[in-house]
Each structure stands twice: as C-alpha cells, then as structure tokens.
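Subject line: Sequence and fold of a protein, written as structure tokens
Enclosed: The protein record, placed directly beneath this head.
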Amino acid sequence: MLVYEYKLDGNKKQFAAIEEAIRVVQFIRNKCLRLWMDGTNVSKNDLQTYCAVLAKDYPFASRLNSQARQASADRAYFAISRFYENCKNKKPGKKNQPTIVPAYPQFQHTNRSVEYKKTGWKLDPAGRHITFTDLCGIGRLRLIGNKKQHIETFPIKDIKRVRIVRRADGYYCQFCVATSRKVEHVETGYQIGIDVGLKSFLTDSEGNTVSNPRHYRKAEKKLGRLQRRLSRKQKKSANRKKARKALAKQHLKVQRQREDFARKQANALVSSHDLIAYENLQIRNMVRNRKLAKSIHDAGWRIFLHPAMGSCMISPSSLCRRTTPVRNAASVAPSCTNRSAFGHISVMAVAWFWIAIIMPLSTFCIKPFLLIKTVPRGTREPTSWSRKTLLDMRPSTAVSAMDSGKAHG
C-alpha cells in the first residue's frame, strides 16, 4: 500500500465545507461508540448499518457520502476491537496506573480527517484536480505536490482510500493505492553494524559517526516564546487562534525536520550495504526515564529504525542461522549486546576475542596450579623454586619491580 499526498488549494468556503465534513465524521464515530457502550455485543456490520439510521435521523449527517459514514463507523469498531485485544493481552492503558487496566475507548473531540472509499470523489485525468461529489459542498480542489509523483498513472480501481487531513499549515489529500513498490538492490558486498545514541546519532562498526542534529533542542527557545504568547491571549478569541496556529506550525516544522533527517540516513545505509545489524531497542521502555525522555524522542530512533528499514527487516533469531548476506537489516536482541557494541557479531570478532582475551586469561589462571603439581613432596626448602614461579606468574611490570627491590636490598 502506497500513500501519495498532495496539498489542497481552495477558497474559504471549500475549507469550511471540509471542516463540516470532519465534524460529521466525529459525530458518527462518537454515536457508534455510544451504541456499543449502551448495548451488549455490537459487530462491525451492526455499526455500519447504524450509519443509515443516523443519516435518517440527522439531516446534516445525510449530506456526507454513505461510504464515508461507514469509514467513520470503522474507526469506532477499531477502537472497540483494540480495547478487547488489550484486555486479552493484559496491556495497561494509562501510564502511572498501579493496576493493569486497558484504556477504555474515549469519545473523540479533536478529529482532523475525513476518509472516502470508492465513491464520493472524482479525479481529473490529468491528476491535477479532485472533485468531491457528495452534498457537503467541498467541490473541486487543486492538488499541489511533488512533480515526480503521478497519481493519474494508477487505475482508479487501485485507489482504495481518499483521505482529507487537516494540519497546521493547511489541508492535505492522501491517496492510498493498492500496489507494491519494488526497488532493485545492487549488491555491494559491504556489511555494517550500527549503534544509535544521544551524543552522536549513530556510530557504525567502522568507527564513523553521524552527529545528532537535535532539532527540538534548537527550536526549544522559539517554541517556548510562542507558548508564552499563546498563554497570554484571551480564551476563545481570534488572537488566541492565531497564536495557537503559529505554535502548531513550529511543532510541525520540527517534526518534518526529524523525519526527513532519519529517512535520508536510513536510505543511505540501506542502499549502500547488503547487511545492516542493529540493536532491537525497546524505545517505549527507555523513554520512561524522565531525565532522558526528551532527548530520546528528539533523536527519532523509531523513525530511523522501523519505517525506513522495516521493509527489509529479518527476525533476530535468523541472524545466527544465515551464512550469506541478507537484504538488508537485521535486529539483534538487546540482551545479546551491551551499550558499546554494534550488534553485528561476526566470526572474526569471536575469533579475535578468543585468541586475545580468553586464551591468555586461561593460561594465567591455570599455570600456578600446574607448577604446584610438579613440586615434589617433602621438599623442605621451597624458596629455591618459589621465586622462579612468581616471576613466571607475574607480568613484566611486577618482575621489574621485584628486581629493583632486590637491587636496593
């Protein structure tokens, strides 16, 4: 499933109609949730059938497309099914709640999107305009986007969803296309292990580092100033709306900077290596540290590791079974690595560790016992061999110290 996004260009009347459609979606979703709270057992089909009852009882709800109303009911059913799944898995809902109680579905107050399925919209053959044909009055809107993406090249039957999303800087239209993206990877013969951090964004197994941009830290002063301006404005006033919009735009800018940096770094690694090994961090648990939570969120590890590398990720257990390079990323369990390791465990590294550390250490520990066994029993003067034994057992620095002491003595 690919998502093509365009910014919408229209007039104030059209944007007001979009806001009305978004409020209708929120109304239907909350009504379906109330039906589940009052009833005993409600299925997905029951919620979609209830949309026709709402359209008959409320005239403003009938102006929205029928499939858009069903999509709103699907949102309520998704919240209900997720609640039951969390109850089954005993997943806690609230952060500081002592008992394991899943989050109960809540009524929505800040809905920001409306979703159409196969009807209610019409795309121009050139792919530059889209027309919404329901009774909400949205009309024809111009699509502004990247020139390299062409939504008109896909058949209409492959476009499964059309979604209008409100953001701080305007309205956007998303096309969900049922297709797969195929990128041919050119074998490079390079394998690498990476370790993400806070001081540097990432460090690879070759010693190269990428500095942490710290987008939120750099914009924190401006965000604080905009937040103070917002708090000084009178509630429900036009100036407060302007101040809130300016603050939301700045937060959106920081979010886009973080996502752009993480995706570019991940794309550079995936395209230039055949195997990428990284530590499978539990970021959700790491951000519970109140002293490091802001820095961890600002680094954007989840965006860097999961979405960009998730299309070519393999399971942690398969790293030990595979003998040939795989494409393209392999996660290693945190228990297998430490804070300074890179997660890429190779045969050469294990061999070096055995030769350089294990063998000398074992020789140093076993040699005294071998020497003691060779001493004949009944020897009354052990001083003749004890010095030689100590000299063999001690490092060079200890030998030099003993020789210097003998000279002074």
Q: What stands out?
A: Residues 307-327, 335-355, 369-391, 393-409 have pLDDT under 50 and may be disordered. The chain has three domains: 2-177, 191-345, 348-408. The radius of gyration is 32 Å.
